[in-house]
Task: structure prediction
Amino acid sequence: MKALLAFADGRIFEGRSFGATGEVAGELVFNTSMMGYQEILTDPSYEGQMVVMTYPLIGNYGINSEDFESEKPWARGLVVKENSGIHVNWRSKLSLDQFLKKHEVIGIEGVDTRAITVHIRDKGAQEAVISTSDLNPDSLIEKAGQSSGLVGKDMVKNVTCSKKYSWTEGTWELGKGYTQNHFSGKRFKVVAYDFGVKKNILRMLFQHGCEITVVPAFTKPDEVLSLNPDGIFLSNGPGDPAGVPYAINNVKQLIGKKPIFGICLGHQILCLALGAKSFKLCFGHRGGNQPVIDLKTKKVEITSQNHGFAIVNESLSDDIEQTHINLNDNTLEGIRHKTLPIFSVQYHPESSPGPHDAGYLFENFIKMMNGAY
Result:
């Protein structure tokens, strides 16, 4: 079935439909990962967005529920050069086409994803529409222009959990799946704010011996402290950090009371709570190959990233030390407080998908809760 992709600025691409049919609008962004499409689709950080995969062949190893990063896909649409007609993997349960149909996610293939990526790189991430029902280019361009975008909007409320829960699942072991942890060291109680948390973050925390209570994004500081945690974790999530002032205010009240570790949106919320400012990147960082330098050790890490906003480096107060910088554009990738047990990173040390270079950060959180800072 014919499908059209229309940008708000008037650029049109024609392709073939796969997955669900119909029409969807959202911010169109690109991801440079060669694999991990199901983790990408089920990452709550993609709420409100559609994803272009730059790698040309997608879907060849199918879909399995064990590698989901949440309970369902959050990306509104998927754009690929070629959707594989076969899927071969011993863990595969569904094809990508079947998965998208099941969850009513629209896909388009047979388009020039290189040209789409270059267009986003040059013109910036913008609103777009994918449609199989309306094939009038002018109509679709108008609809894309009417889409509201992400700036200033609270996307977190759409993805956060409705009530607190405990997490007790460890990391993957071949032949055993995701396992219970047999950690024998000291255990630390961690309260994790769910701004759109990925499962593998929770698995990594659990694997390091944490007893984890996940709480909704709007949970008040007094309720968090009543759980008597050893540390507080601020998760990843979608959209503009300035669009969740309640989260910023809650974190502001927790600063100095418990050790705090933030990832991605959690990093941005923490920085705003510390008085910094955020801004929207032109096309964002999304993929598994972003080079980041540790300013202390001068070691370069290849990192997994997924964000469209960043913190203004110059807006950090004198109490905050920059710890990591992106080598592609010099944007801020990590901070630590000079006197308080607080640190955060913009990238994803839990990978899923992506490299494991930054896994040591979970160990740093454990050390911080153990009094080493």
About this structure: The longest strand covers residues 278-294.
